Every structure is written in C-alpha cells, then in structure tokens.
Amino acid sequence: MYVDIILGSFYKWGKYLGRIGKDILKLIKCKSKTEKNNSMKNIYLIILLVVWASVSGAQDTFRIKSGTNIRTAHNSFIVFKNMNLVNNGSYVQSVGDGVTRLTGNINTTTTGSGTTTLDQLEVFMNNGNTHTLSSLVSIRNVVTLSSGQLVTNGYLTLKSDAVNTARVAKVTSPVSPAVVGEVMIERYNSARKAWRLLSIPSNTLQTIKQSWQEGATNGTANPLPGFGIQITGPAGTSAGFDLSSPSPSMKTYDPISNSWVGVPNTNTYLIKSTGAYMTFIRGDRLANSVSSLPTETILRTKGDLYTGDQPTLSVLSNKYATIGNPYASPVDFTTITKTGGVDDKFYAWDPFIAGNYGYGGYQIMSSTNDWKPVPGGSVTYPSGIAHTTIQLGEGFLVHATSVPGTLSFSENSKITDGNLKSFAKPVEISQIKSIRQFFRVFLFSGINPSDPIIDGNVVAFDPVFSNGIDGNDALKIIAGSENFCSIRNTKILAIEARAPVVNTDTVYYYMSNMAKKVYQLGFAPENMQTDGLEAFLIDRYLNTTTTISLTDSSFINISITSDPASSASDRFKVIFKPMAALPVSFTSVKAYAKGSAINVEWKVEGEYNIKNYEVEKSIDLTNFAFLDSVQAKNIPSSNYWVADLNPGDGFNYYRIRSNDINGIAKYSEVVKVVKGDSKNEISVFPNPIINNHINLQLNKQPSGNYGIRLINKSGEVIMSTKIEHLLNTPIEIINIQKKVSHGIYQLEIIKPDNTQLNINILF
Predict the structure, then answer these.
(1) How far is it, in rounded angstroms, from Cα 303 to Cα 181?
(2) Residue by residue, what is the 3-state secondary structure of 67-100?
(3) Does position 105 have pLDDT exceeding 70, yes or no?
(4) Cβ–Cβ under 8 Å, residues 745 and 763
(5) Which of 148, 198, 413, 490 would suit a FRET pair with 534, their CA atoms being 20 to 30 Å apart?
(6) Cβ burial, residue 532 (10 Å; 0-12/13-18/19+)
C-alpha cells in the first residue's frame, strides 16, 4: 500500500491528517490558512512525530509526489518503520534538532528523483537488515549507526558550510561494515588566504585532480562554483597542476629530511593518505593567483568511510610525523592510543594566527601546558583556553622523543559534538585541574592593545618534570616570520618543562626573523606568586634589568633597529631571585596640580641602605617612563617631592621606585591627576586589567543607563551588565565574577543614546 502526500490534502492546525490502515498511525500536525488550499506547494510539519507501526514483515511506502515540498520545523522526530521512501518532490528537515530514524525488521529503500536533506539520520535496522539509498540524500549534522546496515550506492553526502559540518557519530552497530558504499565528504574553508593542514577522511580511489581540483581540465575551468581549489607546482600543467609555480602549493612532510615536499603530480597521485597535506588555499577555483580576492570554498572527497579501529601508524625516534584524522568526525587527541616515545602533545596549524606573513602558524597543545595553545592569541585558538580536538578534515603533527612509537585511532576517539568551521574546539576549563606553575611570554606585533600575538612560549614548573630535554618539552618548529621562544641545551623550545623554580634559575630566550620595528613582550605568570621569588628581565642590548611581576601581567616594549645587536638571538633572559624585603615603607604618595605643573610627594619610614628614589610617569597606566630622581636621606622618616613641569591634558599617572644599594627595587602605589580640560571620553584604567576589576572612566558623559558586554576573540559574551551612571560620578567599577583567561577582549559599551563604543582591554 502507498501513503501519498497530495497537494492540498491537509487540515487546519490542531487536526490530524487521518488514519489509513488499521495499524498505521500518522500524527502529522500541519498548519495552513485554510482547511483546503490546492494552490499551496509547501507542507510544514510542526513538532512532527510519524510512527509507522506496520504489521511485522509488511512493507509500506511513503511517497512524496513531484512538486510537493515537505519542510519540518524545530524538534521534528520522524520514524520510518518497515517503510520505503519514494521522494520525487522535496523533503528538508530543520537544522540543529531534526531527526529521521530508519528502523524495522525488513530491508527498506530510499528512491526517487527528488531532494532529501536531513539534519540527523539514525539507522536502527533490526537483525542486520539494511536500508539502501538509490537517490541523493544529504546530511547537515550527524549520522548515527546503532544497528543494521546502511548501503549508500554513492548517494550519501555529508554537507559542510559556514555554519556546520556533518559527521558520523561513534559507530555501535554490530554489523561490519555498518556503511557499505561510497560517501561524499565535504569540508568548508572560510574566505581566508592561508596555508591549511588537511586530512582525507575517506578511503577514496580519487586522484588529487578528481577531488580537490574537481576534475578541472585546465586552470581556468570551474566545474562546480564554490568547490575545489587551484593547485600549483613546479612541474606545471603537464603534471596536472593548474599553473606552474616555483614553490608547490600542496605538500607532504618528509620526516627523514624534516622538510615539506611538493606532490609530484595531480593527474595520477591518489589523494588518499594517512598523513596530511600542507595546502595553500586562496579560495575556490576562481581564485587563481596570490593576489586574488579570497573566497569561501568546499573541498570534498568521495570514497568508503573509515570506521572501526584503524591501522597503527609509526613515528620515528626524535622525528615528527604528520597524522590525518581518518574519521568523518572530530576526535579527541587525549583518547588516541599512543605508545613508545610518542609525546603527549600535538602541533596544529592555525590559518588565523598572525605569524608567517598572515598565512598561518603552528599552535602547540601539550599536557605539560594543560592543553592551552602556544602561542595562542587567535580567533581559533584563544590564549588560556584548552584544546584537545582534531576536527574532521584536519591534520596535525606529533613527535617521538628518544625512542620510536605508534599512534592509533578507534571509534572511542570520536567526540559527540564539535563541528566548528574554525578547526578548533575548546575543552571545558572544568576538565583542567592543575596546580602547576607557568611563566608564559607573548610576542605582540606592536604596542597597541589590539595588536595580535605573533609568537610566544611557556615554561612550566612541576616536581614531576626534570631539567633535561624529554617528551614533556615541546620543540619549536621555526616559522618564516618572527620567532620568540626559549632555548635550553641548544634545543629551541616552545614549551619548556622544568623542576620547581629556585633561586638564580634562568630562562634563556631565543628570537629570530625580527623586523625593524617596536614590538611588545607580554609576561603572564600563573601560580607563581607563592614562592617568595622575583623575576627580572635582562636586556643584553640595552644593558637594563626590569622587574617582571609574578602576580600580574607585565608588558615591556622592545625596539629592533638597524643595529644587528638589537635583534641578536640571545638578547633576552629572565632570572629568578629571592624576594628581598626592603627596609623602607611608603606611608603616603600623592600628586596634585600646582599652576601649570604637577607636584608628586611621598613620605617614607624606616630608610636604610636606600640609594635613591625614581619617579616614573605614564599616560596610559601601561608604559611608565623615567621622570626624575632624588637621593635618599637614609633617616628614620623622610619627605620627598618632584615636579612634573610638562604634564599633559587628561590623565597623568605616577609611581615611585626605591632602589637600595644592592640593586633591589620596590614600587609604591600609582597615583593619578587629571590635568586641564580633560576630553569628553570613556576609557579604562588600568589596562591590562588587575584583579578582575574594570575601572571605567566616564569623563563628562551624560547620566543614564549604560549597557556593558565583555566579549572574547571568538565572539563569546563573557559578561553582560548595565550600570546607572550619574554625571558627578566619573568612575564606575565593574566586577567580573568569573575567572577570565589571559588575552585580549573587547569591552562593548552602549550609551544612553544607543551609540556604541568598543574598547580593547587586556587581562
């Protein structure tokens, strides 16, 4: 028997479509403006539950006629039991929460010339029964294979776009293989011109030409707009490349030579690989040069799915290996089986990092650093947010220290969610519990808060670590752009694991490929404040020693000039020394306007062996500069003052530094004076933020309600609140209740007149 959806044959909202057959119950709630409307071509199924409870062994058919469009709304759940689907129209399921389940104790099919686009497909066929596809079916979210078998005949496509990428969940069906036949697997790439490290998630027999070049016969051919890329290489068009180029745009890694080698040709070279391809993506096939405007594109391969346990992959001793995620699903690196010398870390390629001329760079995730990326600082890998996910279509590198090892995937490696287009998914911070100490350093491309991080490194201190080089350390893969990392025993490191820090411990830094400009170093200690130590940055070029806070972030500008010594690889180091209590205490510090100048006064008690006092000034509370100094009197109680004869309009900040005869310094609190007619503006001080308190300075701002939102680089709203500002209250204090990781955030302020102001702040 057939159940046909016929144009106009539906009822008002709240009515049922009816009952056909003794044992077939259709609970199809429909809506329309009239009870019958033969002109409507769309049937909207709202919170749909279709249960085909047919007689055991009987077979029914659900037929959608040509010209009929069925589109389900949210929370739809459709069960086809012992039911064939004949779709000559259109059947589209809602994105994000729609489920179509295939079940029954007989074999069933999907046929027809129409379009079937599902959100979630569940296969629950009993007793090893099959559901066979003989018409095109696209999945936008997830395929679940719990029992029985799905025969694709090459008609199944896992879709990928800017919103979502379809995946295959952990396969639990006892039938092996649970999927028979080829599957088309898509992988969306955003409109960004960059290198990407990509894997092949299908056991395909396609060549590079057939897959990522979409079978194009020449460099100007574009068989399917929005799909495929241009691939170039030195061998030119005779080898299948779209254009001849001095350097290849698609490469594989050779562990013996520790280099990337271009693929020899695309006509005959099969794209299937257990490794990964470093591929330069300019956009789709219309983007045929480096100067082309970047566009979105989708890469796809067609072949059998990899399911079940995968063959073991080998990693050579003291070598890197590229690994491709074999599954059409994200996997968790921590659940991949690793043996021998394979280190508990992986190197991911981030196309959104600022390094390598904007074309991407490595991010290193390691258990040593609680899986937080190094250097971090991009929209895909924010600083301080742990990552352990390898996305569908993503490749990565691993390293084996001292002895060779192996790595293998199983269905248990898959994760249940995570299809971010950015190729990165954060681990919940609650999963990370560590009392480990970290001394992190970031290299910013400039001195403005909005300037991106281009490199960085971390030193982790823990009793479980040794001071030798082993698998807990992460070697640095030197990039073609700026590098700032640590160095120990001639090994250049991105992550350095050490025994607990002690007096005179020294971290030596290595830098290279620096441009002639001013950069900023950001130091971010974590759990370092309890050791009674102080840290000092030694600059061999300027011959200076600068105190680095172990309780809060510190930012120091460094200038690279035409003098080669300014870019010397060993210019910087940090020395840890025991904190010495100075015999002097500041009892008061104040600053006030006097005529056109500002006087800075301070009182001290208990002077002993004090050399002098230096007054430092800042206009942004981030960069302090020397203003003046006075010699210490070394008497029990003293008063001092200096005058700032050239204060600027607006905010002027001051602090006092005492220096003893042993070279140990101590700072006073910071005081502030507003000079002249301050600007009608909104600002944040201090910036970076201290102790999760945002001090919002509202100079001459109107009274009223101000909307405040704190947003991270991924666009996630960390905090949202409102303040009621009064004209005579220049400072509003906003307390952040949750822990905020180190990094750059945007403070969004909606004024009473609904105008918006965005301020970049640093935690």
Answers:
(1) 8
(2) CCEEEECCCCEEEEECEEEEECCEEECCCCCCEE
(3) yes
(4) yes
(5) 490
(6) exposed
Phi, psi of 247 (to 5 degrees): -115, 145
For residues 319 and 288, give the distance between their C-alpha atoms in angstroms, rounded to a whole number. Answer: 35
In the structure encoding, which two tokens stand for residue 387, read together?
Answer: 């990552």
> What tokens were used for 425?
């998914």
Structure tokens belonging to residue 178: 């649970």
C-alpha distances out from residue 268 to 210, 239, 244, 272, Å? 10, 9, 17, 12
Rounded-to-integer distance, Cα 96 and Cα 75, Å: 9
CA separation for the pair 246, 237 (Å, rounded)? 13
Average pLDDT over residues 688-710: 80
pLDDT confidence band for 554 (50 / 70 / 90): confident
Question: Average pLDDT of 18-32?
Answer: 32
Give the Cα separation of 549 and 719 in Å (integer). Answer: 27
Residue of 657, 681, 660 lying closest to 669 (CA atoms): 657
Residue 404, C-beta contacts closer than 8 angstroms, at least 6 positions apart: 314, 315, 316, 317, 340, 341
Residue 562: left if φ>0, alpha if ψ -120 to 50, beta else—which one?
alpha
Q: How far apart are CA 195 and CA 214, in angstroms?
A: 19
Picking from 390, 385, 356, the residue whose alpha carbon sits closest to that of residue 373 is 385
Report CA-CA distances (Å) from 142 to 146, 167, 170, 584. 13, 5, 10, 67
Quote the tokens at residue 33.
Answer: 């403006």
Using pLDDT thresholds of 50, 70 and 90, give the confidence band for residue 735. Answer: confident
For the cut 80, the answer to whether the pLDDT of residue 694 exceeds it is yes
pLDDT digits (tens, 9 = 90+) for 258-303: 999 999 999 999 999 999 999 999 999 999 887 888 999 999 999 9
> How far is it between the farthest Cα atoms of the chain?
106
Residues 6+ apart with CB under 8 A from 642: 599, 600, 615, 627, 628, 630
Each residue's pLDDT tens digit, 468-495: 999 999 999 987 889 999 999 999 999 9
pLDDT averaged over every residue in the chain: 84
End-to-end alpha carbon distance in the chain: 67
Peptide bond into 177 cis (omega under 30): yes
- What is the arithmetic mean of pLDDT over 577-593? 77
From CA 595, how far away is CA 695, in angstroms rounded?
28
Between the alpha carbon of residue 270 and those of residues 227, 259, 579, the distances in Å are: 19, 21, 62
Higher pLDDT, 424 or 705: 705
